[in-house]
Please model this.
Amino acid sequence: MIEQDHQRFRQIVKGKIRGDLRKFITRGELIGKEGKHLISIPVPGIDIPHFRYGDNSGGVGAGEGQEGQTVGQPGDAKGKGAQGGSEPGSHLMEVDVSLEELADILGEELCLPRIQPKGRKQITAIRDKYSGIRRVGPESLKHFKRTYREALKRQIMLGLYDPENPIIVPIKNDKRFRSWKEVLAPQSNAVILYMMDVSGSMGDEQKELVRIEAFWIDTWLRRNYKGIESRYIVHDVAAREVDKQTFYHLREDGGTKISSAFKTARALLDTHYDPAEWNIYIFHFSDGDNCSESDSRDCCRLLSEHLLPLSNLFGYCQVASAYGSGNFINVLHDMLPRRENLVTNRVNTKEDIYDSIKSFFLKGK
Model:
């Protein structure tokens, strides 16, 4: 019964999250509550009906009250202090939801198809498979049912078993343990390459939009692949690889040369990620400002000849900035039309992140 109530509670929680998913996606503070495998989500208080035990002697039904009398008449209160408000409070509780559950809710609500790895993008990983029983092994692998069965058989054979007082005490020779063997299992791997313009026109507000969107991109891709690696590249007029912390907090004052990031991405992929073994996802975040039209053309050439042929998906997300030109997305549309694995969108506010994620993964790439 407890298990049924718990399952019902989980379903109610999922329904609450699904109903408010657009709101949750825009909340950057959720990322700060991410644990190793769980994330804390605030949801309205949920009560599953249950019996409450206690003293039932009080109340109008057992006291001096009259039929139809309102419980708690005005003027009955004897408390002291400031005047209370007249509106009910908003009772919130935090529940822990696994990142897998969160990804499933995201996929169901956005109607995202499960990703199909392109080509032969599988490598072989070694894992343990429990396949038999043996007489020796660590206590952590002891098979309780088989051990009990052996002890029962021994006591019956020796005439020690008493049906009126069935006490079964295993001895050392009764113990049975699970055995395992190493097997080769196919495992789909993916690398996510994030690139971001950190020039002077990209401020803290723009970086917050990138941080929230990248969290949901990670969440969805990790649900679809067993192995994920994330790499980070920042650029102004020059590009370099950095760690995750630096990626989200670095800010420069220089100009913008987007091709520097694309060249660094190409070198990184050529060195570390064979497209025959890896699913490759590339996301570039910028305000659309670039140093020149010729550099924008170089970017399109690098995309067409090198990055797009390697990638499952190249996503370009243009975030609004008061200082950026916003023109690079138009260059991509003009010079690289109808490229199936090139997806572009604009994110002006946090409310746009919901539709941006949907457009990136709607084709199941």
Q: What stands out?
A: The domain at 188-361 is CATH 3.40.50.410 (Rossmann fold).
